[in-house]
Structure formats: structure tokens, C-alpha cells
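Data deposition worksheet. Section B asks for the primary sequence of the deposited chain exactly as it was used as input, without tags or linkers unless they were present during the calculation. Section C holds the resulting structure in C-alpha cell form. Section D is free text for depositor observations; keep each observation to a single sentence. Incomplete worksheets are returned to the depositor.
Section A, Depositor: J.P.
Section B:
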Amino acid sequence: MRLIVINDVSVVRGGATKVAVQCLQACRNAGIDCTFFVGDDGVGVKELDVAVRTIALGERPLRDGHSIADIFDKHFNKRAYEMLSALLSESQEETVVHVHGWNQILSPSIFHALAASKARVIITAHDYFLNCPNGGRLNFRSGAICNLKPMSLDCLLTNCDKRNYFHKLWRFRRSLVQSGAGDAFWERVEVVLAHEGMETYLKSGPLRHFTTLRTPTEPLTRLSTEPWRRERIVFLGRMTWEKGVRTLGEALRMTGQAATLIGRGPLLAEMQEALPHCWVPGWLDDEMVSETAAQARAFVMPSRMPEPYGLVAAEALMSGIPVIVSSNALIAEEIESNGAGLIFESGDAGSLAEALVKIKSDSLVRKLAEGARAFGKNVAPSRKEWERQLIGIYRGESALQLV
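Section C:
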């Protein structure tokens, strides 16, 4: 068996790329022949301890600035199609292809190449782009979770895009190209979910095979934590509207509480100006994040979208730190039922402010911290267990659920 791991980029700046690299490392540990197919220049592989063959297109992501040509190329990247087709035809041995990200560079063209091959195709759903044009199952205008049938007429006519309706039409067209790989192809694709709750949002359409494999997680800090003795609220993530930073900012202004907001994104400068009583440093290295986490009273995950997993929440729980989480997060009910944190109404700054006031109680925070530490032991698999399950999926030893 040979494995091909596919991802838009090689530089680890987000969860999808981090998991893609972990897949490469797992294959190396298991002695599986592996190739990394990426849309960028592959420079990220050189920075990592992953000795695998890399095939790189050498193109840049849409988020780094787009050109007129991208209007067409990122619907169907012809070079990506041709290079992947050539790679697939190199060998007649059994081939497993594991896809992670494709929307920034590679485009849906890769699915047309895969549909023409006999390769077994596995896709990890890090978001909802498998059936939703904007990838979030969220109406970015109203802030509500979208319950429309993806790619329906109602979907087409709804302006739900974070930019404008013309961009929604562009995304809709790209999704049409994606579905154009054919129902026969999509019915044989195996989808790996970061959280079992994602299936509800992805099962409309031709997708049939689902399994859940939660991302392996390490505690945010190995230092001793006593949240009930601390004062600072912490946010760690991208500074974007859909991540709920404006909701958090408004709640912090209501309560006057100090907080640390760590992360990059288009709303960074806005948050720095709006929250002079808080520390908003941008991104921090792992050592600084660990030290900051050890001083945290609680972490906040205010995401507006149905957050597929919430890696930061899991990392905080494993560190024995309570979390305040949006009702839209798929992990919210588990956190509440395990007494590991509080839930607030998504997008409602007043509701979040109430939760922030509640955790001023030392006795409550101590109780939540106990729940967080207990739940954190089981919230995600260890790296060793995750690798075992992943290799089992690659080798066909772990049957995927047929819906």
C-alpha cells in the first residue's frame, strides 16, 4: 500500500495542516510509503521532522492575495489536476489518498483526478466545505446556523457570505465543480469527522461513509494550574467574526474584566483598540502560551459557527482549566454535562457577560476545574492511540459507518 496525503499548504498555521503533518508522521512510524501533495512550495516540510517525498505546485493561497486568474483557476486548478493524475498513475499498487484542505489552492480539480482513479479516498472534514459553499454552515449576515439544504435554490438565493453576494456566487460555482466529480465518486468517499456531531450537517447529499476520529491533543500547559486563584480570562484563536471575538470584546467591556486575547486575524487591530484594559498581543510562541494558560481562570471559545471540535477547548480542559463555550460549538453539551465549564448563547454578549460574572465565584471555578481535569482525560485520544486508529483506517481494519 502507498499513501498520498493532500493539503493546500505545508506550513502549519492551522488545525488542518497540523493534522495532515501528524498523518505523515504516523505513516513514517508505521513504515508506510507516503507522499505529500501540496499546493504551496512545500517549504513547511523542510522545517519539520518528516522525511517524505513531497510534490509541490508552488502556488500561493487565496488568503495571501488573489489575482484575476484565480477567479477561474481556483474553481478548477488545471495544474493540480494534471500533477495529481500523473502521481496516481505512477504505480499500480493499492493507493490510499487522504485529503485535508483544498479550497485555498488545489481547488475541486483534485476530486476529478481522484474520481478517474481506482484509489481509495479518505477526506478529513475539518469544516463543512464538503457540502456547504461558505464552509461554515453559518449565515454570516444573520449569525444563525444555516438549516437550508446545501446547494439548493434557497441556498443559491441566500446571501450568507462573509464578504458579499458576488463572492457567494463564486463559492457556489466552485461547489458545483466539486459535486461535478459525480455521485458515484462521492458515494465511495470515506469521511473522517473531528466530532460525531458534524455528521448531521454533512449527510445531506451523496456522502455515505462516516467515522469519527478526534484530533490528538496535548494540554495547553504542563505547569500546575489553580484557576480559582487566578483572575485572567483567556482567548486563543483567529481574530475573526465567526470565531466570536466581537461578542467576547463586547462582553469584556460590559464586565470590565481583564483578559488576554491571543491570535492573528483581520480583527486584531480592532480588538487592540476596543479593549485597552486587556492584553491583545497578537500571536505568541508555545512557551508564552503555556505560561499564559497557567495563569488563566478560564478559557473562552465564543465561536459563532457550529465549531467542529474546538481544539483549544480540549487543550484547556486537559490542563484542568474551565471553559466558557458558545452554544453553537459541537462540544458544548459534553462540557456542560461533565461540569467542566459554562455555556452561553452564541452571539449574545449579554449571555457571555453573565457567564463571566458567574466565574468570579472561586468555589464555582474550583468545582469546574475539577470537572475539566476529569473530562480532559477522555476528551481526545492520546497521540499513540490516534495513530493506531488512523493506521487501522488506512489499512481498512476500521470499517466506516454506512448511513
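Section D:
The chain has two domains: 2-216+382-402, 227-376.
The CA atoms of residues 248 and 372 lie 21 Å apart.
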